[in-house]
Amino acid sequence: MVTNILINEISLNIKKIIMELNLPSIKFTVEPTRSNFGYIMCNVSFLLVKYLHKKPFEIAQLIAKKYQKFLNDLIIKIEPHPTGYLNFFINDSKLNELILKKSCSINYGKTNIGNGANINIEHTSINPNKPIHIGHVRNIIIGDTIARLLKKINYNVNVLNYVDDSGLQVADLIVGFKCLGFNKNPKNSRFDVYCGNVVYIKTTEKYKNDPNLLKIRQNILQELERKQSSTTKFANEITKKILNKQLETCWRLNSSYDCLNFESQIIHSGLWKSVFNKLQEMKLIYYEQKGKNAGCWIVKTRIGNHKNDKIIIRSDGTATYIAKDITYALWKLGIIKDPFNYKKYIMQHDGKILLETTLDDKYSNNVKFSTRKTITVIDSRQSYLQNIISELVKKFDQQIIYTHLKYEAIKLSQDTAKELGLVYENKPIQMSGRKGTYIIADYFLDMLKYNILQKAKKRYNNLDMGTLSKLAENLAVSTLRYEMIKIDLSKMIVFDFKESLDVDGNTALYIQYAYARASRILEKAKIKPSFDVEYELLDNQYEHELIKIIGEYEICICDAAINLAPKIIATYCYKLATLFNSFYEHNTVLNLKNTQLTNARLCLVNSFIFTLQSALSLLGMKATTLL
Q1: pTM (global) more than 0.90
Q2: Which of 181, 233, 551, 602 is deepest in the core (most CB within 10 A)?
Q3: pLDDT band at 601 (very low <50, low <70, confident <90, very high)
Q4: Which residues, at least 6 apart from 328, have a Cβ–Cβ distance to it below 8 Å?
């Protein structure tokens, strides 16, 4: 917050100087700099070369001279660097006081960029035919973290979870239960695991040798589009049992939602029919009368310079998932009328009520989830189809913002795959629901928890198993969440058990260890630090670097939220922990003869704790005092 205020003040004053020089308005950057080069730097001199026809250093000298009248008790000096950058120097004592006091506020890092505007985030949206596996986890954690970030900058965020309860994969389950004799009440097996690992896989294998089953599946798909059919009711029973298990896994990962949107209700609401008619009126679809797509309705698309038409209605009259996705996108963006009422589905782990769409008139329709901005979290393999949807919704309204937040898939390292019993090739393993080559997320978390618990038992042999188990669970979830966020969304993750549990690397445990270390310092001090101290006492390199990064917290939040880049917060947490560890190794905090210095350093430790706890919460991680 403090650093952001400084940046805004410097930016405003430089704009005034540019106006004084009768120069056109230009975009320049003002940002924190490295040690020994001031506290803030600006590149404006380079951008004015073409107007003033001088060298960057000469322009920097000119602006530095004119900036003298804006210096105050906080910004005390401006210095032109020979490279052409402008470096701003700050009153360290005053800055220390402002940052350490502000950072202990519960609202530290909050901004009003969103101004309370509504925005939808759709994530998770896993087919209800199997358990959540490790390949799904990145989607869940990215979506949840983005929601947390946007709330922090004051967006009114609605988190949606789309449930495809009427597609091919659900039809496959129904074929299995109805035609192949699978038990819908299996013993000694979680229902979602049984459906995914047994019913779905074995049913799809049967199609190869029994074409009649494919015809049955096709009939089932048609029946699923009829609201009152027995097949629809059976599908609802099966999918909700699976969905409930999926939600338990999501809650374990510290994620929650505002509304479940069921695909079957989109179909039964008649929304698709009105969208279909509108697409015809706008001449965005056409009926194919010959060739391999004869009898199908086709949507015309152009992505970049490429034309590619996609089937939107099959020749048997059933809608493809593209048709359903287009309808859903138009609903999310408020382009078509909301036909739904909303009822309570369940109370979630965090106390938030989860709503679901319903067509039952006895429930309220006062809640509205449609908005002009929506973010859909789907992996990069779906980019082409997402581009089609984005292109089509823009035809309806150019002002809406439909964002596909894409990410690369996750694989398991060879060592981790072997440890989990997946040894197929000498290379990382990619998950596949159809092939059954995946690791269930809960089993994966259990394995992480077990490894952490064994170490915790040795370290804390005086603690009861209940406390140790909660600690291990928290750290397992933190580890998994951090590993999913610390990598750029554009890069594939190769997850490795051993690396993720390293307390000396860029891991959740390393960061949590720094938090626990700081907490123990305050615990041993047995006093609450007073902020009425001599802040100039915090004057060495390690104190300055730690205070500086604490002051940059708001900048990182804004950067991460605006650019939908959660890695920025993970990187911030790691850097913050690293700088605290350096401070700890080079400075004594307790038992100093100078009690004022002890108190000042305790204020810094306290500030670090507050800031890291807040940053970890944005990543969905709970800070722990035990490690």
Answers
A1: yes
A2: 551
A3: very high
A4: 162, 261, 263, 266
